[in-house]
Hints:
By secondary structure, the chain is mainly β. Helix content is about 10%, strand content about 25%. It has one domain: TolB, C-terminal domain (Neuraminidase). The longest helix is centred in the N-terminal third of the chain and has 9 residues, at about 170-175. It comes from Pseudomonas turukhanskensis.
Amino acid sequence: MSHDHEQFHTRLESHDDIAINPSSNPSLADILNPSRRNVLKGGLSVAILGFFGGISACSKASASPLLNFKGVPVQLDPHFDRVVVAEGYRAVPFFSWGDPVEAGAPAWSPDASDDWQAQLKQAGDNHDGMDFFAFEGETDRGLLVMNHEYINPYLHPSSTIDQSKPRPLDEVRKEQAAHGVSVIEVKKGADGQWVRVLDSAYNRRISMLTPMRLAGPLAGHALMQTVSDPKGLEVLGTLNNCATGVTPWGTFLTCEENWPNYFINRDQADFAQRVSHKRYGLASSGTSKNYAWESADPRFDATPDASQPHGGHVNEPNRFGWVVEIDPFDPKAQPIKRTAFGRFSRECAALSLGDDGKMAFYSGDDAKGEYIYKFVPSGKHDASNPKASRDLLDSGTLYAAKLNADGNGQWLALVHGENGLTAENGFASQAEVLVNARAAADKAGATPMDRPEWAAVHPRTREVYVTLTNNDGRGSKQPLDKANPRAQNLHGHILRFNEQGANPTATAFTWDLFLLAGEAQGTKGKDGKPVPANLTGTINGDILSSPDGLAFDEAGRLWIQTDYDDVEPAMQNMGCNQLLCADPSTREVRRFLVGPRGCEITGLAWSPDGKAMWANIQHPGISFPASDGKTRPRSTTLLITRVDGGVIGA
Ligand code: FEO
Ligand code: CA
Ligand code: CA
Ligand code: CA
């Protein structure tokens, strides 16, 4: 089948920035964003290329003992369709959308086929958070496990998704199959390069069509019961899997982020009073925000239906927004939705493990004015008996962060009967608190943040770093405060938390601003005037915008990944999205890699020896990794190594 490759640039946004008020969400016309196609054809190239006065190309060698590579320049080419990594390094495509995963999977052939059964066994789309799990006692073999957050129209031979008509069920099934998680076995080959083990019994796809068990306080609860699952114990699938976590007992945590976009409740009166729908911004008219699956698959229509048991599918949205635990080493094991974590648009679940085996998992809720959370399991991990930890995630305390102007902060317990979470305030039980965690955090008095994305915990100090990616509503929809100090914060910032006594379970902490992202001081705009103060950063080193992915390596280098729309005028100096590295002590930041035009860089994992790094190129805009300008683009995991075989960054 022939096709117009320009169509491939079209993608659906992931709606990371859904505001509390659904009326401010983008229209379908915005989502399909035809202007992006023009830009990628070069329509704005002059504007982009003509706006880079004042940028230093890249940083030079510096005093930081941690950053031992030469920085790469920003990439301003509007047609850029490759990856550039620091001198002395190599970055190669390793695992792309459509690559075979499970036994019997056919090769990728998206022009010829819209076969959802094939997609079910192939790599999903929009690779996101990712972790490496070594086989016990081995350093040269492991499982790479990654999320597939959402899908792009070029999933289909037609490269289109038409939400104005009832969706064909086969297309919907393929989209559902392309969501979820991939588990792939990888090993170091004889030549020292990492390769996939294509026939591994561990290779596995988990998708929107994989049954999973509900566990924790909501398992079997009336709020989880639907006409399809009257017991409220088993959910079909996971979706919008964004960032991740790992447990001390070696399981993978995948986090369900923008699930509200997949549901609709058309009963206006019901919607207005149903906190579990309204506070999360479900659609209430037209179609659901993502893909209109409800037109082919009734469980995504959450309009209450009194003629059906349990109101039909009105509770189906309650079954998403959780942390899902997956044991990558047991391909037969059902994934488990752990409801004690609470329900919101969860970005990640970053582990901090104390000396005593007690732990915390830190999470952002990525929407404008939402909160930072942590979950502290009641029990402790005993490394000598890891099997005993298997159900530790089913009881514990969910907290939301309150950041005070003086640099102190408190973790507010979201516990029924505490902090105003009482029946008279609308929280009849702990189950209601967990399902409506956003409303509970509102009531408790948590601090509204500028779109919290990833958290990362320093491997020795246990300092917690959190990306606040951006918030154009700060100063209008949310008031300015010390922790969110810029009006119309288009470039975002990174905060640092220190728990009292470096104890993950502490309820008091101090915080400081690690950096404000944005333009270098003194940068001039096209008009020759200094760029506005709210767009100027405090970065010691290479500029970046919209920090999102965040991870520490073993040596304590902080790796920062960006996610901004690289054709927006405010991003013209930033160029293509980037992977950078920071020294937490000196705060120096150096750009390590730039991606192809249109992509986001996200997900980061290392081999045990630190000599291989994997990073994800999500939704490249032109034709990466083919980079021939004709082939439809594919989200792709990169394998990054040093030419001399050394440790990355060292
Ligand atoms: Fe899926 Fe907030 O990024
Ligand atoms: Ca994304
Ligand atoms: Ca993200
Ligand atoms: Ca983002």
